[in-house]
From TrEMBL:
Pfam families xref list: Peripla_BP_6
Superkingdom of origin: Bacteria
InterPro entries according to UniProt: BCAA_transport, Leu-bd, Peripla_BP_I
Taxonomic lineage: Bacteria, Pseudomonadati, Pseudomonadota, Betaproteobacteria, Burkholderiales
Residues annotated as domain Leucine-binding protein: 29-388
Signal peptide feature range: 1-26
Transmembrane feature ranges: none
Stated name of the protein: Branched-chain amino acid transport system substrate-binding protein
Protein keywords: Signal
CDD domains assigned: PBP1_SBP-like
Family: Belongs to the leucine-binding protein family.
Amino acid sequence: MKNTPFSLSFLALSGALALGASAAQAADPIRLGLIEGLSGPFANAGEAVARNLNWAIERVNARGGVKLPGGNRPLELVRLDSKGNTEEALTMLKSAVDQQIGVVLQGNSSATAAALIDALNKHNDREPQRRAVFLNYSAVEPSLTNEKCSPWHFRFDAHADMRLAALTDVLQQDTALKRVYLIGQDYSFGQHVVRQGRAMIVAKRPDIQVVGEELHPVGRVKDFLPYATKIKASGAQAVVTGNWGNDLTLLVKAARDVGFEGKFYTFYGNALGVPGALGDAGVGRVVAVAEWHPNAGGKASDALVTSFHQRFPKPEDDYLHVRMQAMVEMLAQAMERAHATDAAAVAKALSGARFDGKALGGLGAGQMRAGDHQFLQPLYVSTMQKAGTEGVRFDVEGSGYGFRTVRYLTAEQTAQPHSCKMAPL
């Protein structure tokens, strides 16, 4: 790890912050408005995002901040609690632009992201002197970069169809699998995953029977036992779900409690309590898809994980995503290329931008496709295993369980056509 950017101990990083960033800290910060549920049913997911973004910001500031013609400026994260509610998120957007915050960040809810895109489009047309860009790290409903695409919106996560394609490619190879149950949260994203999941499974494995489809209220179900009982009674050998946050953790806990022994093909089963909830029952049975995972391998990846654990040593804080690190790095680079921080200049610099990953030791490389503002990057499909077994150096959240790669897809392999007709700035 000697030559990687994450080989510094946290103590050394603190020294860099104090010495290397002193000039930037004296300048006015570039404020980034995080609009997220930091309280309410998905507060754990919101706080996990905030940790990722703060860590990325600390790294930019440690090297002096964003280099601009008038001098270096630090980044600063402004927390705007939406309480997991779309109407509150729109109120927070108004608060952000009223404070002349030119970059807003959100991701935990595609329905909220869609509302923010629409509101921001109208605001930017109406008040060009206070425009903002929207960086999306995890709202993955495909329409956001298709029919609802916007020159002000940039998505840094693979959208749902890209993730589903990778998951169902692995599912397709399981020749013993004959019966599948689809379950999701009852809003645009969850509905899409259930609908498109069925379509992909039928296309790739017409011999598989979909024995159930279920949609449930988002963030309001406290007892998933009735759902888990139905899944077990259906005879399903696997569950496919896009559930996230507590809606996923409570679902897998209920499945364990009723004795369901099938697999889980998930978007987010590698974090936020899921491995610990299942324990040994999840080994070899939980499949997840992401742009990276802690056991992806290589010196840079191992060093990134080690450095994050030094910064956030509590097991419950163990939630790291390369895409969020890349997003902040790309934003800083876009501002430096544009020699400006105003929204129009930043949007133009981000559109079509490539990220070589050097700031992350080679990790997170990809391109922000100009045609739809969808970031194209590799994807990993991984399965849950005991930590310490082959390919599983790091566990998740101190659970004793981690994930091992079963399929890697290049950025070119994950790319899909789009229907965006991008409006000019």
